[in-house]
């Protein structure tokens, strides 16, 4: 996940590293990573390189030079400013933002734009679900035209999540699965994976304690044996994004190496 190879310096667990984002491509390549999931957040979003033509050209150049791709865009923008619990003018503005993100994603070769429905953007009512579905439906034609998927990351139970995904035609909206958020909520990872099946397009690797925060991989409530058993059952062939707990500041490479080793044992 973008920013994980950059010291946070008080910026929290997840952020867009404005000053260091380009350096992360070469650092990722040196570590043997082959993908960075790009973050698009609300703060200063017009300064995000993904938003500008000049920035997109630079991203494409970094991908070409490093061999590190960008397949997924994490649109934290919509966690901070969701499509619901806002007035219709803001909802429509959000739709415009998502449409542009789809176009920019296509330009850099990304195939998935993720919409987090967690915390501030967690779905609470059927009215909120309707507003979300309406907004996504307005963006689907341009997404399908570009061959870019829209995907949702939610805190819904698996059967409820599946019902939401089935509202959209022809598997056009996918699922992002987060092993840490699942463990925090007490869900059964095997049940989730086998229920969502081929809707799953991307996996965030994380560990959290039940009802609590993020902890180092293997020390929380996530059952990785069940998770990978489920992935084997559905013949999963998508990506894995390391979104695990941060370690000591200025030791980001060491932390990521340890996370890579943990994940490769299961792969």
With strands numbered from the N-terminus, the spatial order across the biggest sheet is 1-2-3-4-5-6-7
Radius of gyration using CA atoms only? 18 Å
| Contiguous helical run count | 10
Q: What is the 3D shape?
A: globular
Report the helical percentage: 40-55%
Please give the largest β-sheet: 7 strands, parallel
Level-2 CATH architecture: Alpha-Beta Barrel
- In the predicted model, the low-confidence regions spanning at least 5 consecutive residues are none
Could you tell me the number of beta strands?
A: 7
Structural class: alpha/beta
The tally of structural domains comes to 1
- What is the CATH H-level superfamily? Divalent-metal-dependent TIM barrel enzymes
Average predicted confidence as pLDDT: 97
Taken as a percent bin, the fraction of beta residues is 5-15%
CATH class: Alpha Beta
Tell me the CATH topology: TIM Barrel
- Element string (H = helix, E = strand): HEHEHHEHEHEHHEHEH
Spatial gap, N to C terminus: 18 Å
